[in-house]
Peroxisomal multifunctional enzyme type 2 (Azumapecten farreri), 740 residues
Amino acid sequence: MAAPLRFDGKVVLVTGAGNGLGRQYALDFAERGASVVVNDLGGNFKGEGAGTRAADVVVNEIKSKGGKAVANYNSVEEGEKVVQTALENFGRIDVVINNAGILRDRSFARISDTDWDLIHKVHLRGAFQVSRAAWPHMKKQNYGRIINVTSAAGIYGNFGQANYSAAKLGVLGLSNTLAIEGKKNNVKCNTIAPIAGSRMTETVMPPDMVAALKPEFVSPLVLYLSHEDCDESGSLFEVGAGWIGKLRWERTKGVVCRSSNSAMTPEAVRDNWDAVTDFTDSYTPRSNQEPAGIMMEVLRKIDQGPAKPSRASSRAASSGSGPDVEAAKQYKPKPIKFTYSARDVMLYALGVGSSTRAPDYLNFLYEGGEDFGVIPSFAVIPAQMGMENVITQGIPGMEINPAKILHGEQYVELYKPMPTSGTLTSQVSIADVLDKGSGAVILINIETFDEKKEKVCFNQFNIFAVGYGKFGGNRNSEAAKAPGKAPSRKPDSFLVETTSVDQAALYRLCGDRNPLHIDPSFAAMGGFTKPILHGLCSFGYATRHVLKQYGNNDVTKVKAIKARFAKPVLPGQTIHTDMWKEGNRVMFQCKVAESGDVCLSGGYIDFHAAPAASATTAAPQVATDLKSDLIFEEIGRRAKDEPAMVKKVNSVFQFNITKGGKTAAVWTTDMKTPGGAIYKGEPKQGKADCTLTISDDNFGDMVTGKLNGQDAFMKGLLKIQGNLMLAQKLGELFRTRSNL
Ligand SMILES: CCCCCCC[C@@H](O)CC(=O)SCCNC(=O)CCNC(=O)[C@H](O)C(C)(C)COP(=O)(O)OP(=O)(O)OC[C@H]1O[C@@H](n2cnc3c(N)ncnc32)[C@H](O)[C@@H]1OP(=O)(O)O
């Protein structure tokens, strides 16, 4: 049997511990080794009178059984004094049970100001005062447990208890925020709504029920929630007679009752009322980021106008045990219009890493450039909204939590080069919904036409809904555009490029405002340590790489693009694209250089005609968002924040500077110090992860900026051994650090 839950060495403060539930908590904590502060003002249950007797009796009872306890007679409104008793007598405070409470029941019309204020002062302000006094001590010791007491009257309302209900629901709000703010310091806070016979409930319950609902059938929950082994926080429980149940919020799927070009009317609300209040496919929101995320989706859906009754009714008709695939395939929303200008085209180019550092930037970043054109992967942008509508409206029988959505694969086919501006119209359909076990894959086909009604492009979005599998559906579909397979031979060519730490923040301005890519709390709900890069952003990087290596940046040559998103990329990570030429097709695969993980797999670009072999074979690119003199800071930061990512750079880098064939200077850096301290000193042979040897032939040019690390490397003037990519960054560093 697991060890009993003990509180030896812990100091527990129970307010209102002179009677009823509070007394029971105090006795039970003391019996299990805690030192207990028994707080009680000594008044009656209406808050009248004061005295020391109630607390003293409980303290004596604890002491008579060999326990440790001390009395405190202050009002909970004097939280500092209450907590001070714990600190003075036992030197610390670990657990606070905000139990003290009184009643001033009156029907609403008869509640006086005093009845209202007194109830709020004791229940809500009292819990605030005592918790605030204990808070800094709990945070400092990195351990604390707070249990707040609410009531069924607070949760559901109760006749004659408007003042009490309001204060008690306020206590729940207080708890929820304390749970969030305390998380970092292992301070956990939960709320209970006990159903027990007490001096207070005697006024609202029949005597035989009061007798049956004993405090000892509530207390064990309080002790468990207060124990260091319990991870629960921010939760609400009803408890009584030995029964415990957890409560949570539930929300209907809801419905948008207005469109972008019309006012919202009461009639629209009336007409949608069934959908507003329909709990079929309901949802249980858990944080205030979730409603915020949904609001963003609502704004996007506004353009679609009021909900289509047909979708709602088909959803209601489904069994709820999984998607109704046949009904989904009938989905035919009204076409979507997308108007854009050269500005959007250039913003997209920046979003997928185009930079003025590259000589060919005029192609994508300057509308006055001779060959100004649209990166072919931009074709996903006009179609994006159609895909999002499918996800936010859900599939019949399948309500989708946006935090569980990942982009699985993308296929794009171009019938003509994307125009640099215009209004395009897209028709959306659901090709299939597949059961992949760990998730459901939703295949969304979107055809896009120009003003002349000529087809410009076709997109297939493959959206992976994590955790929605196992519904008994088909695993594969003929409608799916399958990924390719990278050849087993060494890549014919590769390009390496570091994304910006702000890459997702930039890319989302192109249209995909999914909070997963910017909001840490939202990303955490999807199970990520931080916001991840849009799959379509990496897709754009890969497209640029292949187009540069094999298409001479000529956007008219590209026919189709496909890739699978195999692993997420974090903004700031480096994308390494390996490429293989196979006739008209260039296969590609991207890795996250820092981790070695494949992030885009099975990728290919089909060209209209077989491309020429790559001019620069295996040429490394030093394309970084970082200013050279910030590189050391960046590496230092990574070493600190993401040690797993920089295992290889945790030791020493060494720079040999030679003049006339002889070593003129040796610099080393440990790469651990933010700011990147460079130490001059003796070479640490054998210890360096990487060595750069720079000869006097090129060093001067590098310092003055005529030659950068990449060029020097390409010309063979800069010799780099060891971790190539980091060495490239360091090579780049030499371009501007003239103070070296
Ligand atoms: C509100 C508006 C919403 C808007 C929509 C969202 C748009 C964007 O904002 C969202 C994004 O950009 S997310 C970022 C880009 N995507 C990613 O990072 C996903 C990375 N991939 C993964 O994590 C896993 O592959 C993962 C999790 C997808 C699958 O991993 P596993 O569960 O481990 O799967 P596995 O066991 O390897 O394979 C099971 C079956 O699934 C198929 N499969 C695997 N990866 C797939 C993928 N990426 N796409 C499609 N299918 C995939 C496997 O082939 C296997 O099926 P089968 O056995 O039939 O071959």
